[in-house]
Known about the structure:
Blueprint: H1 3-15, E1 27-33, E2 38-42, H2 55-65, E3 71-78, H3 88-96, E4 103-108, E5 111-117, H4 118-121
Parallel strand pairs: 3-4
Antiparallel strand pairs: 1-2, 1-3, 4-5
Amino acid sequence: MSNQDALFNTALACYNHAYAPYSNFAVGAAVLGSNGKIYGGCNVENVSYPCGTCAEAGAIAAMNADGERLIKEIVVVASGTDLITPCGACLQRIFEFSDSSTLVHLATTDGIKKSYKIAELLPVSFAEESLRK
Ligand code: THU
């Protein structure tokens, strides 16, 4: 199985575990770290809506908890036939742990449909250097 197939399968498994009773919009994500390991996450909503967390946030937290800091690739899979891009906050979360070759794959439950470099999705970013200016 290719890395990308394994990444998609993890994202899909997480999608199936999404807790989204308020939006009914399930999202799964999986990141491939530079260590070759895959970490998954799903959206977890809350009756107090702002407490809910995105799928990407869960996957990135799991990666960090394992001591890995660099995302090589990330897959996001969501409900419906239309592809979704990560929300603005999640683009910033991904960017924090990316390099110039980090890929963001957008998927439906059928598979990966489009791939972008993070800089294509967040071309003008708030970065660590911004703090020093
Ligand atoms: N959601 C994600 O998990 N990731 C995104 O990038 C976009 C939105 C979730 C949050 C919420 O639980 C549901 O999708 C509807 O916004």
